[in-house]
């Protein structure tokens, strides 16, 4: 592929189709890291922003959470979508999840769910996660010798885990799956409900209606689950506002699902493409923890978050004015040559592996331990039973600037 010009490279970040073409995306990011690591991107329909592509700069910005704020622009969206979401918020029906908030409110809201993601809660959930991992590996065996791994396996397993943690009934599985895909795959034609801001808001409204009913029921009859902790969570002695409560469900249901699906399918794809690493792992399953980290680095399911400068400041000598936004390019940070030896090599034993796939600082992924456990359970179940595996067609990536990965991974395999 020819070297992109500076302007082409920067614009790629604000072009959903580029995320469906790994080679094009990485050529642009490699070029930016080397030549323009704090790049101005002006590519309508998005409002302009600074693209931050170096690992150290992304960490420094996330660490300075009183200077670089999540409000009012936590992620990249077309200007008209930004405006529609703002209007919705002003009308009292908006989405304000943990990722939209800043401290001190953010810290208080985060604390309400935090216990459910600590090691003790994870240990309690492990039996259920292992059981689900086995269920899906058994399913692979039963539907073999070919399947679309994303559609048949990876999409279902993490959603079941999240629904279990929340305490929701399995019957609600299809409805949740459709809504999370419509919400996070919003820019990809295959998954979106429609292409207008109204369509996105309709998805949000459906989410809100479902979870409003759940809140009412958990307040009337509290249970021992995360849904109940959220419904009855208090800040400074008061129940959380409707917007904060409903948004909490939305972030848990959606952040815990597509991300892990993308990490599992991206991880399996990497193992297929690197049969030596697959064999190495199968022969030494003690490498599973480092292998899981490497799969998460490799897939980088969350492509970006944004922050907005509260004051005039500088990054790497480039002046950022108050009110301007920075785009934290996790995909780029995770291939930064200054941090990772041979960053384009998939290495199941990579250690250290300071990837940024879970972000950094006060917003560090609340579900990181859960995601790691899910992946560990799944591959620990699958690999000893996997006798052969190869691609049975062309894998396809989703076209989205936010959460994304493989949307199809056709495989031919034999599972005992
Ligand atoms: C491999 C899978 C996952 C990846 C790659 C991932 C990635 C991320 C990233 C990049 C952030 C933002 C961090 C920042 O701004 O510094 C985040 C936040 C978050 N994630 Fe995850 N995540 C994954 C799985 C999960 C799971 C399983 C859950 C469970 C519910 C979850 C829940 C959350 C929540 C609630 C936040 C917001 C935290 C806050 O703003 O304080 N994630 N995640």
UniProtKB/TrEMBL annotation:
Keyword Lipid metabolism: yes
Signal peptide boundaries: none
Family annotation (PROSITE patterns): CYTOCHROME_P450
Keywords for the protein's UniProt record, in alphabetical order: Cholesterol metabolism, Heme, Iron, Lipid degradation, Lipid metabolism, Metal-binding, Monooxygenase, Oxidoreductase, Steroid metabolism, Sterol metabolism
GO aspect biological process, one term: cholesterol catabolic process
Pathway: Steroid metabolism; cholesterol degradation
Requisite cofactors: heme
GO molecular function, one term: steroid hydroxylase activity
SUPFAM superfamilies: Cytochrome P450
Cross-referenced Pfam families: p450
Family from the record: Belongs to the cytochrome P450 family.
Descriptive protein name: Steroid C26-monooxygenase
Organism: Mycolicibacterium agri
